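[09:14] KT: can someone run the structure on this one? pasting the chain below
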Amino acid sequence: MTGTTTRPAGPEQLRSRIAAELERTRARTALLTEAVDEADLTRQHSPLMSPLVWDLAHVGNQEELWLVRDVGGREPVRRDIDDLYDAFKQPRRDRPTLPLLPPQEARAYLLTVRDKVLDLLDWVAFTERPLVADGFAFGMIVQHEQQHDETMLATHQLRAGPAVLHAPPPPEPTVRVDAEVLVPAGEFTMGTDTDPWALDNERPAHRVHLPAYAIDAAPVTNGRYREFIADGGYDDPRWWSPAGWRHRREAELVAPMHWRRDGDGWAHRRFGRWAPVRDDEPVVHVCYHEARAYAAWAGRRLPTEAEWEKAARWDPASGRSRRYPWGDDDPTAEHANLGQRHLWPAPVGAYPAGASPLGVHQLIGDVWEWTSTPFRGHPGFTAFPYREYSEVFFGDDHRVLRGGSFGTDRAACRGTFRNWDFPIRRQIFSGFRCARDARPEESQP
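[09:31] RB: done, structure tokens below
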């Protein structure tokens, strides 16, 4: 089930959709873990990431905990491994030293758990309690596994050695995209009460009033970012916050992650292949501090989360908030660069069918977009079904990212979906766009 704003027609249709999503998601997990040999599967490719084999068994353990044990009320398959695959008890840097399930045993474990889940799916009632209403628990597990698939894709980007993942290049641009779009002042509905698989931090829907502002019609490109580098942006503390400048110096940042000098230009490494940096692609693998510094250099700022969501969802003709920029229909290959269909961002102007009514492009897919907003709950937030999904991360330590990337699956991406990370992180598929306050003459109706 990829989700709609209306409830499914009936339980049998819902069962079929859930089964299809479980199968589709597991196929992606298999692709990512079978593309490498056992040595690469068990090796830690970066202290920031888990060994791939940990992620593999972890998604099975979460499926067992929530579906087999909680929803199904069945006996545990492997209670003895719960602590090993508890993400809060086991920091990523320590996971290679744990007695993890070897690859063959991990795969057998996933098969056993999935057989029990499919049996459960045959008889579970979807109305008996909130956890299973509209198949929520199953949707939560699909999204959890897809999120780990994106994490595993980021691990593949960090691994050394020859390329093992393959995909066609993204489509070429078909339209010229304006530099920026003016968003008029007024209220819009942020968040959702109607999406059956929306997670707790996307809820509840609430009205937000914003003054007029302008936002980039597309993410900041490599070409624009290269101008910032060439102008000495990494060497000038004027553009950086105190925390950002301190991090830039300590981490010795000079360019986006995976970039290197190539003659008079730049090249970047993408999943084991080096290629020249293409100017019209969105810049990727930059941290929040880099994005904020670029925005200051350009005389602009990062958008707030609310500004990003209004640009992505608000329909000026009807006044309502759409599920996606293009409407309520699920994403297709015509709308957005999602789901690992391609292995890097598409050039600006490649997805005109995915633009918002205001003419803002590529808000969904391509790159996660940093916002200036710390991660907190919406007004009226209630943790569900557990605090550790969202609430324990609330506060000033994390900044919100929106929109998904080329590695984000459609099941884990919509106009209300919220991601978050530390401001120093850039191994994720992160980029940004800029915004500015509207000038007085622009704010007039």
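[09:33] KT: thanks! The CA atoms of residues 265 and 276 lie 8 Å apart.
[09:34] RB: yep, looked fine to me
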